[in-house]
Design goal:
801 residues, DUF7590, Ufd1-like, 20 helices, flat, 5 domains, 5-stranded mixed sheet, Vcp-like ATPase, Chain A, domain 2
């Protein structure tokens, strides 16, 4: 009986349900003062490099535990058991230096017991310290005031912040979160896209019970908006926090209570009634031109945006804003729309502005202004000043409503002789003979009535004692409201214009840029506006390399010298470090160096010698053979030159070549004569031939049949006499039959050379360049045009170098 011998069973890794172990690590670190912590977004923290080493060690131990848990019992008599353990060892080596993604932490403030979850930004903090974002500081209730002195050898060395306990904690992926707005009036259209972008860019985790602050754009009144939400519940349920990376998160917005919901609906309805373009709201703005004035209205605290797409760049341009009813707090702001200026003008970010307290405001732009060099259009904004209690859509804190203010906006090219100042130009010349100027109101009056006028004027009118030249009725409200700034020469006639002037030029506190972390402070709004449109890293630009509207980046306090010298922004300097292939020479070049590289190609193009066309008027070749890369002497450099002094290409000279000694070229002349007589007598027999000195070509062109030898010799003699003459000294063209392709190239080259400008630019290209282009591109007309643009010199450019 045969024994049933079966191979030993291979050990199988059974998929038994094991609880997935998690990374275990914790430490206690001192909080880095906020002045020494770089700006951190969202829930990001900075840990020291020693924490990374400890986490990698903990991850290695975790990987070893996982591999050891899943291994079967080792059987020394089973050969496959060794292979299984080798595979487990390889798996361990692959996983021992791998940290979980994303890496999340549980932060605890031992002083008050507050807990919040966070994600890692970098391992670049000082040893023994942890850096927290402003959101995490507020959630944990820690401030720099809680810092304590560290005493070393009896001396106070440095300040140390409160201790923070940090635990490595892996969180479940969130699928649902409920947010409750803390203030009424939020419109979902305002925050929906902002919330998604803010979470994706700044947050790794969401902690239940925390307040999520989503920065918005600028409201219609130009102020930065903030949307504050209370995080109130997750799915999966029961979790204190969830991870929001690589997950589809459903967000539900629910009001805190019924009163808030009713107030929200009320504000949304009020907002709809005063939307831009409505009867009670501000005007919608739009495009304007030089031939039609724009009439509109504006609510306090809002902007009306216009754009002037075109004007005569060689003339001065004047933008005039006229407010009705003598309103002085409607202001004119202008910013060029260019690759370096992409934002619309706002009161804290503009290039040109007229903010003085006058009903009529004018800005004159000269064609030599450097800000207009790259401007594609002009963005013009009308801004109505609003007091601190004003809210969007014309409401105030006490519930009253502002009426819209009407204005007229126009653009024109002024007469160069017109004065550029807004102040009227006084003259000592009387308008009429016999007129005398009143000493009180400075008006011209007839001399015969001067006494009556002065008596009335001195009794009823009052000249401003501050020297502004305005005249008021005594005890009138206008004179009571008239003001002069004690710090400068500004003045106005309404309390609102006085408040506007103080707000813009003399704020109660120093101003800081809201878009960057510069240490510079600003004493006035114009200086802040200049910063935001010049060196601010948050200024929006159109990158010349990625072609996206992005912040220009950089350090506002320490300008990048390389960026200044290269006339690029720091973002463009970094983005331009990417490389690409030059379409002309196929070399790898950095994007930011491509302009200089192409200028070098232009210099080579100007100094490149033109091609020498074959002397045969029917041939479409050059003597030295042009290459695809623009070399007009490529064939000669490779030893494939014409090899003759006649001026024929190697193909046309081939039938005339013999190896005999002929110093006086008598035999050459006989061969040329024989070739002519053969063509005129018998022809080449090719139906497509267009050679005028060939029987076949003459027949196809309808200019005659065969020519007898007697008649042919006088026709040929001029070509023989000028056969060896230099070019331009009696040299004549030759007429030999060629192949069809060469003949077609010559005809196309002549048509191409006859074009004056067209696709190639001013003046077109001469015949020799067109012949060389078609030769280099194998007769492809489209490619030949590109070759001419890249390598040839136009007629109007001339040769340089």
């Amino acid at each position: 009986m045969d024994d049933d011998i079966s191979p030993p069973a291979s050990p199988v890794l059974e998929s038994r349900p094991h609880p997935q172990p998690s990374l275990t690590w914790s430490t206690q670190l001192a909080l880095t003062p906020s002045s020494l912590t770089p700006p951190l977004p969202g829930d990001k923290i900075l840990l020291p490099p020693s924490a990374l080493e400890a986490l990698l060690s903990a991850a290695s131990n975790l990987s070893a535990d996982i591999v050891r848990r899943d291994l079967p019992a080792f059987d020394p008599y089973n050969s496959s058991s060794y292979s299984t353990y080798r595979a487990a060892e390889a798996q361990f080596q692959d996983q021992k230096q791998t940290l979980p993604y994303p890496l999340t932490f549980r932060l605890v403030n031992p002083g008050n017991g507050r807990v919040v979850y966070a994600g890692i930004r970098e391992f670049s903090a000082e040893d023994g310290q942890v850096g927290l974002s402003s959101f995490l500081r507020g959630a944990l209730g820690v401030e720099d005031d809680n810092a304590e002195k560290v005493v070393v050898d009896g001396e106070e060395k440095e300040e140390r912040g409160p201790m923070i306990t940090i635990h490595a904690k892996q969180l479940p992926k969130g699928t649902f979160v409920k947010l409750r707005p803390l203030e009424p009036g939020y419109d979902p259209d305002d925050w929906k896209a902002l919330l998604e972008q803010h979470l994706r860019q700044n947050y790794t985790t969401l902690t239940n019970g925390q307040v999520l602050v989503v920065p918005g754009g600028r409201a219609s009144n130009g102020k930065k908006e903030e949307f504050r939400f209370l995080i109130d519940g997750f799915k999966p349920e029961g979790a204190d926090a969830v991870c929001v990376v690589d997950t589809d998160l459903e967000v539900d917005i629910e009001a805190l209570n019924e009163d808030q919901a009713r107030e929200t609906m009320k504000r949304i309805a009020a907002k709809m009634t005063k939307m831009p373009g409505s009867k009670e709201g501000s005007s919608a703005g739009g495009e304007m031109d030089l031939f039609k004035a724009q009439e509109g209205q504006i609510l306090p605290g809002e902007y009306v945006d216009y754009q002037l797409p075109s004007w005569n760049r060689t003339q001065s341009l004047e933008i005039e804003l006229q407010a009705e009813d003598g309103v002085e707090d409607v202001n004119l702001l202008i910013s060029p729309f260019s690759p370096t200026q992409q934002s619309k003008p706002r009161i804290d970010g503009y290039v040109f502005a007229e903010l003085e307290g006058r009903p009529t405001k004018r800005i004159r732009l000269e064609p030599s202004n450097v800000e207009l060099e790259t401007a594609e259009a002009l963005n013009i904004a009308v801004y109505a000043f609003a007091a601190e209690d004003a809210q969007p859509n014309g409401h105030t804190a006490n519930g009253t409503t502002h009426e819209p203010k009407h204005f007229t906006l126009r653009a024109r090219h002024p007469d160069p002789k017109e004065p550029t100042l807004n102040t009227p130009q006084s003259s000592d010349t009387p308008p009429n003979e016999g007129d005398v100027r009143c000493k009180n109101c400075t008006q011209w009056v007839p001399g015969r009535t001067l006494m009556l006028h002065e008596n009335f004027c001195l009794r009823n009118n009052l000249l401003c004692p501050k020297g502004c030249g305005q005249v008021f009725q005594k005890r009138s409200s206008e004179f009571t409201s008239h003001w002069h700034c004690p710090h400068d020469s500004s003045y106005g006639n309404t309390p609102t214009s006085h408040l506007q002037h103080d707000t813009f030029f003399h704020p109660t506190s120093v101003l800081r840029c809201p878009d960057c972390s510069t240490s510079e402070t600003f004493s006035t709004l114009p200086t802040l506006a200049h910063h935001r449109t010049s060196t601010c890293p948050g200024k929006s630009i159109l990158c010349r390399f990625c072609h996206l509207v992005v912040p220009q980046e950089g350090d506002p306090d320490v300008p990048n010298a390389e960026a200044l010298l290269s006339d690029m922004t720091p973002h463009e300097l970094a983005d331009g470090a990417r490389t690409t292939e030059c379409h002309l020479c196929n070399k790898i070049v950095r994007l930011r160096d491509m302009d200089i590289h192409l200028k070098n190609h232009d210099l080579d193009r100007y100094s490149r010698p033109p091609p020498i066309v074959c002397r045969n008027v029917n041939c479409g070749r050059t003597l030295d053979t042009c290459s695809h890369s623009g070399d007009t002497r490529a064939g000669t450099k490779m030893g494939q030159g014409p090899g003759n002094d006649v001026g024929l290409c190697s193909v046309c000279f081939g039938p005339l070549y013999v190896s005999m000694y002929d110093p006086e070229n008598k035999a050459l002349k006989r061969r040329v004569e024989r070739r002519y007589l053969q063509q005129l007598g018998t022809g080449c027999g090719k139906t497509w031939c267009n050679n005028e000195f060939c029987k076949t070509g003459r027949t196809s062109k309808g200019i005659g049949a065969a020519v007898s030898t007697k008649d042919a010799i006088p026709m040929v003699k001029p070509f023989l006499d000028g056969l060896l003459q230099p070019a331009g000294q009696g040299q004549t063209g030759l007429h030999f039959c060629v192949n069809e392709q060469s003949q077609k190239r010559r005809g196309m080259a002549e048509l191409l050379a006859a074009e004056d400008g067209g696709p190639m630019g001013k003046g077109g290209f001469s015949l020799e360049w067109c012949v060389g282009a078609l030769e280099a591109e194998k007769g492809d007309l489209g490619e030949a045009r590109g070759w001419l643009r890249n390598w040839a010199v136009e007629r109007g450019e001339g040769r340089r170098g």
